[in-house]
TrEMBL record:
The keyword Magnesium does not apply. GO terms for molecular function: ER retention sequence binding. It is a multi-pass membrane protein. This is ER lumen protein-retaining receptor.
């Protein structure tokens, strides 16, 4: 599954960068989020807050912290453009739903596997789900009122 996940992720990035129809829709003026700050913050947190100070655990913590905030540039771009097309809105919705179901899985496992918990993914998952909360709110309002999704300024 990891190979399929990595391959499809690489294919999506390639498609977004190389396909002329998709590349034409990119607006550099709207996309000004400084993503390197997120990478640097995740890297710093992976050294400061890790369960075991080893290369393997630091890399694991870095990936968890970075995954928690990786959607932030997309959410900021959607907020700036205000007008969200159906495909993008549904993509972000399902990414957030995936994370919310992950949290439900952690809660289930906490009670069925001897009350063991790993606080790093729990906190990162809650942060990531919290980042989606605003988007969820406006997505469900637009769905309920049967109107096109537009985010406030």
């Amino acid at each position: 599954m990891k190979i399929v996940f990595i391959t499809t992720s690489a294919a999506i990035v390639w498609y977004m960068r190389r396909h002329p129809q998709v590349r034409r829709t990119y607006d550099r003026d709207q996309d000004t989020f400084r993503h390197l700050f997120l990478v640097a913050a995740a890297f710093a947190l992976s050294y400061l807050y890790v369960t075991t100070f080893s290369e393997k655990h630091i890399c694991w913590a870095f990936s968890i912290y970075l995954e928690a905030v990786a959607i932030l540039p997309q959410l900021v771009l959607l907020q700036r453009s205000r007008n969200v097309d159906n495909l993008t809105g549904q993509y972000v919705l399902f990414l957030g739903a995936y994370r919310a179901f992950y949290i439900l899985n952690w809660i289930y496992r906490y009670f069925t596997e001897g009350h063991q918990s790993r606080w790093i993914p729990w906190i990162a998952g809650l942060v990531q789900t919290g980042l989606y909360a605003d988007f969820f709110y406006y997505y469900f309002l637009s769905w309920k009122n049967n109107v096109k999704l537009e985010l406030p300024a």
